């Protein structure tokens, strides 16, 4: 039943059993420990992120960032495999460690997420302005309730023959720059807090218990007695089925119809972000990841790269990022006493990111369509 | 050369000569005079538009609105035919009357344009809010610099356990409603002024001179001596060629790529609206109209409806309408002392309409593609 989903041409698929799962988990655990060692060596737990530089990768060394990413990467894979192949593993052990891994990768992901969100929003403001809007480059005045007065500092040196036009032109440019400065302030603060939380987490006894568990896993995987010879394919197939069921429930016909204007519906509604309409897509993103990791378990290092699965996953990542960036812009617009020009720029930015959400859904639909056609 | 563009299966096409042009112009002139009479009879020149009702069609009787539309319709067709078939008509006469017709149809079009623009923007706000935002329904307070205070009147009756959240939720709803009220005020004022200008125009000696000219045209078309037997097809073909040349210069590859994010580029730039990138599309819209009217001259009443040409024209109308609505939202956001929540809503609205612009370009590309494939 579920076996029909597997690629029958792959030589590894035939022999995928509990041993393959144990090998995969041992390899990921080893990778986790290697990344943890690297993270400690490269000073990943030293110093807060520089407050004036918020671009991704500016914090600490590139090695430290890579190490944190590798930690999250293996934690996600271990957690996913424990979930998908649950019946083959010691239940008490796996049910105890999964929430701990989720806590860890969630905590470690936040700092990077805030940095990436800020970069995405500043790039969008840049694109929308047709000019550099990074505060450091424009010398933006601080936000105040009096946008009109501030806009006069925009440095338009033409003679004041059309003063109204000058102020109008200045307003929007200053609006974009001030919106950028506001987002930079808010998201850098959030990122700094996330950095502290991550440091606290990595120094906690809770984390040391996780690391101890992973160290054990690197040498001995707690399989059930019957697991060694059990076929992994039904469980992997069930994971794929959960994915295809969730995809089937998505509004793909609408998503495949360009410019359907769905993503911005309720863009001004009183409901707070995040948009409820995004949730099923976020869920598919997680299920796609589980499916991808289950394929890794089955195929081992010889796993063929499925470019269509990759494209679908990238579309869903873009969907998630744009959705959260749009929410951050809307959130920033609720800051008290901002200038109208700042609020206007944040409104444009919010709508721009919601259209990115719509574009990502279209991209997902396109890649998913291709996949269905390609695998008869 | 140009003849290859014509439909060889149409029986009328073979016999299209100066007589057909004269017949077409006489018919349009008669239609103009009929619409003018109807417009006067139905009180088209009585009373200003009601200031509290700004929806299209609420002003005066439906008959009066229809009559004004019929007036513009025939004025456009006469003017277009004089342009396309210029060499076949008395030069002095046609060069004198064309600018007058352009002035007339331009003046008459403004009132309707403002009404339609307001309706488009209020519908968009409605869609974006997921709730009624028409000021009459929500009892919106007037715009003031203090948006936070106003937002408390939004009528949230929940207990004040989370006062911050209550204000935030209220802010955006009130923002959309206030943006709607602001646009209604500004565009109704513009519409009232356009109505007065149209009335003034219809009572002017300048208009009476145009009407006299059209009355002469209804009985006697000033063709050149050679025109009666001249083939209309080369001139009609030249009009089509101007269209296809202009279309070929459009960025159709980009437009056919959904979610290309082109239309919102420079959405926050200091350049004032209208967007320069829209101009070539507006130009194609005019050339498409000239081509369509030239086909009417050639085919007479038996002109087959070209649904693809129709779809392309509708896409370009939508492009024009969305472009102007986006500019109106940006313009409204420059109103001094508006609340940040109002400015935010106008920003979202502006971006929404710019995406409508992009969607219209995509729709044009799709219909134009079909046309090329359909006419081998």
UniProtKB/TrEMBL annotation, chains A, B:
Residues 40-67, 135-165 are annotated as: Disordered. InterPro entries: CHAD_dom, CHAD_dom_sf. Gene3D superfamilies: CHAD domain. It comes from Streptomyces chartreusis. It comes from the Bacteria. Residues 14-373 form the CHAD domain. The lineage of its organism: Bacteria, Bacillati, Actinomycetota, Actinomycetes, Kitasatosporales. Pfam families: CHAD. This is CHAD domain-containing protein.
């Amino acid at each position: 039943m579920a076996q029909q989903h597997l690629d029958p041409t792959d030589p590894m698929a035939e022999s995928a059993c509990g041993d393959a799962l144990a090998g995969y988990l041992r390899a990921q655990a080893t990778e986790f420990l290697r990344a943890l060692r690297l993270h400690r060596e490269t000073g990943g737990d030293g110093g807060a992120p520089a407050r004036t530089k918020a671009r991704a990768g500016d914090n600490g060394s590139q090695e430290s960032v890579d190490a944190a990413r590798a930690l999250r990467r293996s934690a996600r894979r271990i957690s996913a495999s424990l979930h998908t192949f649950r019946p083959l593993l010691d239940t008490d052990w796996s049910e105890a460690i999964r929430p701990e891994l989720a806590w860890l990768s969630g905590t470690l992901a936040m700092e990077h997420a805030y940095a990436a969100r800020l970069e995405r929003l500043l790039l969008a403001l840049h694109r929308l302005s047709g000019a550099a809007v990074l505060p450091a480059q424009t010398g933006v005045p601080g936000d105040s309730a009096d946008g009109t007065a501030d806009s006069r500092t925009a440095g338009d040196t033409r003679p004041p023959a059309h003063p109204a036009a000058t102020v109008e032109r200045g307003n929007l440019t200053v609006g974009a720059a001030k919106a950028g400065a506001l987002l930079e302030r808010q998201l850098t603060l959030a990122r700094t807090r996330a950095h502290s939380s991550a440091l606290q987490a990595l120094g906690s006894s809770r984390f040391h218990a996780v690391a101890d568990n992973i160290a054990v896993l690197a040498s001995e995987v707690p399989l059930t007695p019957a697991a060694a010879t059990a076929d992994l394919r039904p469980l992997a197939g069930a994971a794929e089925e959960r994915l295809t069921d969730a995809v089937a429930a998505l509004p793909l016909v609408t998503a495949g119809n360009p410019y359907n204007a769905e993503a911005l519906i309720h863009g001004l509604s009183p409901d707070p972000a995040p948009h409820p309409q995004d949730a099923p897509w976020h869920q598919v993103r997680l299920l796609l990841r589980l499916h991808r990791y289950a394929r890794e378990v089955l195929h081992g290092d010889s796993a063929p790269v499925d470019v269509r699965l990759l494209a679908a996953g990238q579309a869903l990542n873009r969907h998630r990022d744009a959705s959260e960036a749009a929410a951050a812009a809307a959130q920033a617009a609720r800051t008290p006493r901002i200038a109208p020009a700042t609020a206007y720029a944040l409104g444009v930015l919010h709508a721009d990111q919601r259209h990115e959400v719509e574009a990502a859904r279209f991209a997902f639909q396109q890649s998913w369509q291709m996949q269905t056609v390609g695998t008869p």
